[in-house]
Amino acid sequence: MTNAAATLDQAVLAPYLEANVPGFHGLTRIEKFSGGQSNPTFRLHAASGSYVLRSKPPGKLLKSAHQVDREYRVMSALAPTKVPVPTMLHLSADGEDSPIGRQFYIMEYLDGRVLWDPALADLDVAERAAVYDQLNETLADLHNVDVAAVGLTDFGRPGNYYERQLKTWTKNYRASETEPIPAMDRLIDWLEANKPEDDGQVSLVHGDYRLDNVMFAKDAPRAIAVLDWELSTLGHPLADLAYQCTNWRLPHSGHFRGLSGVSRDGTGLPVEEEYIARYCERRGIGKIDNWPFYIAFSFFRLGAILQGVYKRALDGNASQPERAMTYGKAVPQLAQMAVDTIDKDA
């Protein structure tokens, strides 16, 4: 059985790109990136240079998922800000009006480093510290963006962000649920009962901010692009901070690549408390209340995302089918980590 998410028809795509992407000509090869579980992502080799194509996956999709047009819009809007993003080149139509039958966009290809291991074992102490400081600074820069100035005031709905997010991800999780997970059910009930009051904070949030979604220069610990904006919206900035901080709580083995159990002494790797303090300093904010809720919600949302990827694998529409099938086992683990967090800290 052919995995439709892994292939593109070069003969059909080439003339379309030459007609719609300025300067594009001579498509010679299409290479699928190993990442991009949610939205299949390809490198296009052409006589005019290298490009990146990122598309919706094929098949029936959840209504609120895989909105590549939102990715295209937000990265276009961020071009003049301090947040590093690739240059956007073209957004296609969707469905039958697209040459591949689904929506995609084209952006510039950047030749940088993606650091997959959060322990950064291949880097020296100083560079490890610099990489995490860049992650921290870039996140603060993102949350300090004036959304009105970049034309994104309508990029999210008004009202309590966490109330909306909990409703959305519970609905998505239930739609892709394949078997009962008691810890997930308990977690959903606890989150619903412990939502913090809306404090009025609103910023542009990335939605999936982590080490391997930031590209670094090859010759320096300098961020050159924040990628994978599918989940971006207007929301509460602590959502991004807490999601990244789950990295300190995830194990460095099995289905995950976190920092739990990895020594921080003399390694250049910050502890969670240091990372949070530096972020707060950069944004000029004080102590964070309700931290266990933010962490527990981050585990829940990640579990809901992975459940959706797992369900697509069962349906034959996953971008990386073998890896996606393993995510079914990860969801109960994430739910239990969240339950452990609320039992210990809340």
Summarize the structure.
The protein is α+β, with helices and mostly antiparallel strands and 346 residues long.
**Low-confidence regions:** none
Biggest sheet details: 5 strands, antiparallel
Number of strands: 10
Question: Mean of the pLDDT scores?
Answer: 91
Structural class: alpha+beta
Per DSSP, the total helix count is 9
Name the shape in a single word. Answer: globular
Please write the string of helix (H) and strand (E) elements: HEEEHEEEHHHEEEEHHHH
Describe the secondary structure blueprint for this structure.
Layout lengths: L9 H11 L6 E6 L8 E6 L2 E7 L12 H11 L9 E4 L12 E5 L4 E2 L10 H19 L17 H16 L5 H12 L9 E3 L8 E3 L6 E4 L6 E3 L2 H8 L26 H12 L7 H25 L5 H25 L1
Antiparallel strand pairs: 1-2, 2-3, 3-5, 4-5, 6-8, 7-10, 8-9
Helix pairs in contact: 3-7, 4-8, 5-8, 5-9, 6-8, 8-9
What does this structure look like?
The protein has 346 residues and is α+β, with helices and mostly antiparallel strands. The protein is 40% helix and 12% strand. It contains 9 helices and 10 strands. The longest helix has 25 residues. The chain is globular and about 60 Å long.
